[in-house]
Automatic annotation (TrEMBL):
This is Deoxyribodipyrimidine photo-lyase. Residues 5-131 form the Photolyase/cryptochrome alpha/beta domain. Its cofactor is (6R)-5,10-methylene-5,6,7,8-tetrahydrofolate; FAD. The record marks 305, 358, 381 as: Electron transfer via tryptophanyl radical. The lineage of its organism: Bacteria, Pseudomonadati, Pseudomonadota, Alphaproteobacteria, Rhodobacterales. PANTHER family: CRYPTOCHROME, CRYPTOCHROME CIRCADIAN CLOCK 5 ISOFORM X1. FAD binds at residues 224, 236-240, 271, 371-373. Pfam families: DNA_photolyase, FAD_binding_7. It comes from Aliigemmobacter aestuarii. Keywords: Chromophore, FAD, Flavoprotein, Lyase. One of its GO terms (biological process) is response to light stimulus. The keyword Flavoprotein applies. The keyword Flavoprotein applies. Belongs to the DNA photolyase family. Binds 1 FAD per subunit.
Amino acid sequence: MMTDAPLILWFRRDLRLADHPMLTAAVATGRSLIPVFILDPETEATGAAARWRLGLSVDDFAQRIAGLGSRLVLRRGPAGDVLDRLIAETGAAGVMWSRLYDPASRARDGAVKAALKARGLIAESHPGHVLFEPWTVETGQGGFYRVYTPFWKAVKDRAAGAALPPPAALRPPTAWPASDRLQDWHLGRDMHRGAAVVAQHQAVGEVAARARLDRFLAQSVGDYREARDFPAREATSRLSENLTYGEISPRLIWHAGMRAHHEGAAGAEHFLKELVWRDFAWHLMYHTPHIATANWREDWSRFPWRDDNPDAERWRRGMTGEPFVDAALREMYVTGTMHNRARMIVASYLTKHLLTHWKVGLDWFAQCLTDWDPASNAMGWQWVAGSGPDAAPYFRIFNPASQAEKFDPDGQYRRRYIAEMSRTPGPEALAYFDAVPISWGLDPAARYPRPVVDLAQGRARALAAYARRDGVD
Ligand code: FAD
């Protein structure tokens, strides 16, 4: 079938060609296709590192699209207005996109869909960002899951559907609408000196994501379960960075993990369980959108968290004097990501030893992470803080010193990121000082700071605050 009016393909966090349900459906219409990426206010609101990293992804994807005889048109402005203008310019029959599940995207996409439908235009959304869409996983009573283990049991044997092949070509329109130039968007403007440092740690785009998956399955999946907690080791997949921008589909990872599991790879099932935590986070965000902005459990609203404060600023700068905590925060500043165990430790330290609201930490992660994911970030912070669904109880306070002894026994991770702890600091430790704003006035030759809080006193203060809050938890 060939129809004259083109279709607009509105790409957002689905910057790949393989296993892309919307792309497959669009090609099947036989229409000419106009791929578009829109820098709308929702996207502009993304934190500094994630916005910069998104630009790398868009650039890579534009090249892949060009390889199929097509183009990625770039436009800026509110998505509804931009799409209206493009439809007027091209005579397009409508728009297709892949669904997102955070409140801002849902509000935007719902309005776009209603407006297009009211004009009798095509307005089609497709799955692909998660394994199982949030409304398709229900408890026996027909509600949503608040606890992970039953969620895992409900999905682990479900068919995820076969992964779709990439299209061989995309039929171009007879005339191309004008496009912005990516560099004119200045997506890295808030990264300052950091971009050059963080860039060395990114694996951008679909090809790099596939290589990461293959390498992980060939080298690391076997002892994933035991090794994944040791931050100095290269034991995890690091695919969170690619999943965030849709450079690889979770379904492709799922099938590859399942194959490894059936072939007897010891850690494969555990890896799949972690992947399903990501789905669970989106499940929670869809059903309880307040998870990103307010205590998930309402009875926590009376907990005496401190708002932003000077101790939290030392935390942000990796200058708390608690080496495991500081190494982790510096790792994030240098690489754009942080090891999962380290995320739990810095979150516990901020919300318990420093008695500071989890929102302060969530916001800093949103600024610094290149794998920032609104759902996993919110779930992770509230899980550690104790205010979230299926959360660790507040009184379970990680001791960063004993965690370091257990998970960084030879101090490799701490030395890798803390220049002040070594006479001959390595490149990552020094890179931190190249990346931070000059205004912070940090110097690798300075003495490592004294602890901002005594661990025993911080723990006692947290427990006292918890005890005073009757009704909490
Ligand atoms: P692997 O161990 O290889 O796991 C494979 C995949 O499973 C990951 O890529 C990820 O998609 C998923 N996954 C693994 N662990 C988790 C988890 N605990 N929760 C949800 N999904 C998981 N993850 C993000 O992607 N973005 C965030 O912004 C984010 N913020 C976090 C904040 C806090 C306070 C905490 C405790 C965790 C956060 N996580 C976040 C979850 C987790 O730390 C990362 O997904 C993980 O470190 C990514 O490394 P990896 O890709 O090597 O994971």
